[in-house]
Amino acid sequence: MVLKSLIDQEKENLIAFRRALHRIPETAYHEEKTASFVAEKLSEAGLPYKEGIARFGVMAWLDTRRPGPTLLIRADMDALPIQEETDLPFASQHAGAMHACGHDGHMAILLCTARVMTQLAERLCGTVKFIFQPAEEGPGGAKPMIEAGVMENPGVDYVLGCHLWPDIPEGAVGVKAGPLMAAMDRFDVKILGRGGHGAMPHQCIDALEVGCQVVGALQRIASRQMNPLTPTVVTVGSFHSGSTFNVIPSEAEFCGTTRTFDRGVWDSWPQRLERIIAGICEAMGADYRFTFSRGYPPTVNDVQMAHVVRRCAEEAVGKDRVMEPEPTMGGEDMAFFLERAKGCYFCLGTGREGGAPIHNPRFDFDEKVLAIAVEINCRAALTLLGRQETS
Ligand SMILES: [Zn+2]
Ligand SMILES: [Zn+2]
User: Rounded to the nearest whole angstrom, what is the distance from the C-alpha of residue 39 to the centroid of ligand 1?
Assistant: First the structure.
């Protein structure tokens, strides 16, 4: 079939693009060289594009000049502040930065998808937008790109994206309707007590001890307040207080993250957390500062779009290689695109025996899987935007 041979022609590019990007990882909102590389490749593909959206975001588009729906396909661009520990010949050239979450692969997939799609343009109607988004690892580039208007003119009907997924076998594809990834937020707490001599607690309000009580009580939200069938996480990831053995500290500071798939729970976090913090501080005579910073909403796939992607994946890799992945409490700002149009975020299996997980300094994958995602993207476009006479 024509599509397979068009994709076969991109196999060298997939490897070359991925490796070139892997060499120059840039963390959130520093994706300058990455954006230039993407722009250069888009211009070689003959596609119009716009740079500098939400700082380093890039959008290209394929306008078929025939009326029809608009499909947006998104890749994230940023690397992690990790020192790479692989011995790969194309290892990171930037000290302290590494593409350890596979975003180099995501960009290679999207660049080659765009290249193949320009050759399929005659078979399509409507518009395809190719979105390269900065800062997925936080603070989040999806929302500012949407605020800059990438979902409008023309309005986006469908969205697609994928993530490399070492939890499923190499070459398999994971597609799941409904919630796939959790809503994630951050909270910061400061307990204000009264410091003094370690031998004289009666003269003090021990901020460290009050902080410990709060941390313990926060764990009871998940275990005692939530429906056990509604997965929730409250993690305190950092706690700082005190400086030596015989001084009661006047302050304790900690921060953490909350996770849930449930919209109602998501809305209720600030009030639930503050009630516990305020109650314990009140009881112990301490004061507090509390800030709750909204992160990403839950990543939820549309049922019909998941069905379309599953069918395309089955055509690409065969029915027995398509599975339903377990949802994860990890967060993903693809969620913002999926909130605004019907879409599906699918998982591209990279798992192999002894392989490192994502966010690990030894993470790597075999680039041969990348062509699978290109094929799924193209098949989905032909399904959603295919011209009647050729579909
Ligand atoms: Zn990541
Ligand atoms: Zn990622």
Answer: 23
Catalytic residue among 10, 136, 333, 367: 136
Parse the chain into domains and list their residue ranges.
2-182+298-385, 183-296
Q: Round the average pLDDT of the chain to a whole number and report it.
A: 97
274 belongs to the catalytic site: no
Distance 316 CA to ligand 1 centre (A): 26
Please tell me the distance between residue 359's alpha carbon and the centre of ligand 1 in angstroms: 6
- 11-23 vs 32-44: helix crossing angle, rounded to 10: 160
pLDDT at residue number 390: 47
For residue 138, how far is its CA from the centre of ligand 2 (angstroms)?
Answer: 10
User: Which CATH number is 183-296's, of 3.30.70.360, 3.40.50.300, 3.40.50.80, 3.40.50.720?
Assistant: 3.30.70.360
- pTM across the whole model: 0.93
Domain 2-182+298-385 CATH class label: alpha beta
Q: Over the stretch 184-235, which tens digit does the pLDDT of each residue have?
A: 999 999 999 999 999 999 999 999 999 999 999 999 999 999 999 999 999 9
Measured CA distances, 317 to 109, 164, 379 (Å): 16, 15, 12
Ligand 2 centroid to Cα of residue 161, in Å, is 11
Catalytic one of 76, 78, 137, 333 = 78
Q: In whole angstroms, give the CA distance from residue 221 to residue 234.
A: 8
Q: Return the ligand number nearest the Cα of 106.
A: 2
- Catalytic residue list contains 188: no
pLDDT band at 1 (very low <50, low <70, confident <90, very high): low
Would you call the peptide bond into 361 cis, given omega within 30 degrees of 0 as the criterion?
no
CB 270 within 8 A of CB 221: no
